[in-house]
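Need tokens for this chain, all 187 residues.
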Amino acid sequence: MSEAERIMQYLPHYYEKSRVMRAVAEAQGKEIVSLWTTLDEILKQFFVETATEWGLDLWEQMLGLKSYSGKPLDHRRSRIISKLRGIGTVTVNMIKNVAESYVYSTVEIIQHPERYTFTIKFIDQRGIPPNLDDVKAAIEEIKPAHLAVEYEFTYTVWGELNDWKTTWDELNAKGVTWEQLKTWEPA
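Here are the structure tokens for all 187 residues:
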């Protein structure tokens, strides 16, 4: 049922045959649909996960972040989520949450108190995350100044090829290069 038909239901029955009232109802119906569409779009901006370009601009401005306009929306969202998660007392859990908000995978925080360092180990994602610079900037902003941070990445190791019952000749036949092998996983 169109908005115009819904509007007509609220009017007295003698307007059913009126072309003027039908035209008015159709015009009002289009405006109502436009209003609801606009309201839905505005509502999306209240949540970082659904915000669009202009909503992310407002989030960045509100949090005092430099605008990343032009970068992929998922990178911008992860920076904003990281900033929101990084408010309060810095704990291992907070650092873990901030790092995971950027890479959308699991990380492990390994503390080395005797060396005044900690390591962020990327577990689920193989290789270097595409937005590693953003992760580093966010961690630098929240970590205690006296601690150094190290990053550890996960790569394919030869033992995994044996576990997957795959030989180098099979990989070579598939066209897998050395560079691809670092982050390769069987399909």
